[in-house]
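Worked example 3 (structure in, sequence out).
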């Protein structure tokens, strides 16, 4: 996965990612502006990791990531300002929703996912995964091109830190 960490609002971030703003490092990266000058196929989902601020006057941080196609995973082209992330096997709590992603509906859907897990072992496992200050509260996964106007699929993901006793046998 290739990632870009920025501080801004989700809608502006998505404009960067989708190439509506030509300052997008990720868009440039897949267009061949990388060390190997290699064009890279766009993949889905686009993942936006939300690292909320600590106070009312602080901006949240966002890390936007594209999955790299299998052909690029062994030796991903480096690029200035971007970071390669390798994910280990991860458990997630997921809530799916439709439409275009907005700051408002992300908040509503994240709250709905959290509420649906309240007072369950999953709630405790999510809180455990958030013990580190650098861990996101949630991630937003978007599966559609910005030019698809109907049938859009998005998800809110919350990382779940499972204890061995919670794992299925």
């Amino acid at each position: 996965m290739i990632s870009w960490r920025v501080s801004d609002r989700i809608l502006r971030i998505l404009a960067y990612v989708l190439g509506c703003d030509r300052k997008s490092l990720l868009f440039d990266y897949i267009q061949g502006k990388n060390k190997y000058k290699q064009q890279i196929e766009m993949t889905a989902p686009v993942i936006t990791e939300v690292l909320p601020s600590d106070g009312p006057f602080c901006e949240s941080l966002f890390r936007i990531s594209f999955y790299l196609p299998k052909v690029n995973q062994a030796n991903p082209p480096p690029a200035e300002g971007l970071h390669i992330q390798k994910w280990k096997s991860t458990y997630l709590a997921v809530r799916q929703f439709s439409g275009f992603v907005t700051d408002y509906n992300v908040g509503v859907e994240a709250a709905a996912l959290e509420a649906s897990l309240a007072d369950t072992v999953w709630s405790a496992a999510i809180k455990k995964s958030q013990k580190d200050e650098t861990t996101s509260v949630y991630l937003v996964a978007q599966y559609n091109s910005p030019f698809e106007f109907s049938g859009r699929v998005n998800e809110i993901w919350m990382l779940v830190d499972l204890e061995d006793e919670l794992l299925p046998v």
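Notes: Strands lie at 2-7, 46-51, 61-66, 83-84, 91-97, 138-142, 154-160. The mean pLDDT is 80.
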